[in-house]
Write a structure and sequence with these properties.
It is built from four helices and no strands. By secondary structure, it is an all-alpha fold. The longest helix has 81 residues.
Length: 200
Amino acid sequence: MAASMSDDDIIRKRLLIDGDGIGDDKRISTLMKTFMKWCNAPGSDEDSATYQRMLAQLAQCEHAMEKTQLIHGMNTHEINNYEQLYTDIEQSIEDAHTKIGDCKQELQHAKRVRKNRQEYDALAKVIQQHPDRQQTMRRLEELQKELKTLKDSREGLEAKMEMRQKQFHVLVTSIHELQAMLEDEKDEDEEEQMETGSST
């Protein structure tokens, strides 16, 4: 009985130590050997140490199988999680590329808007430096009035000059006539003097 307890202690210790599925083939092979030994041993019964050892080995194999199934299930679950994570990452990368493309388009649009705004501001400054339509029309009317005034003044001056020319022509004609009259009178006086001298 002490040997049986010793074998049980050894089996329990191995169950605690070997928990990662290492040596499963060896356990099954050992279980088969123990089973064959128990079957071939004379007077084998359920109270023998071989039978108890066989039960312990069977429990160890079942424990290893359950643990392997649990690990397999966990690995499958992890694989599914990794696949889902991979899908999520791919989707995130695709979304990031889409957002980057949208941001690039928005940036180009913002650049165009900024360029147009700068051009509009420059044009507005140029326009502000020039008078508006109403001021231009008022200035044009003023210039037309000034032009009409100058034209009227020129016509008035031309009329005055024409009148002065006529007056000057009359004056010159009068001077010539006066000179002719004076010359005639002078000639007459000379003739009279000559006649007076002859008669004396």
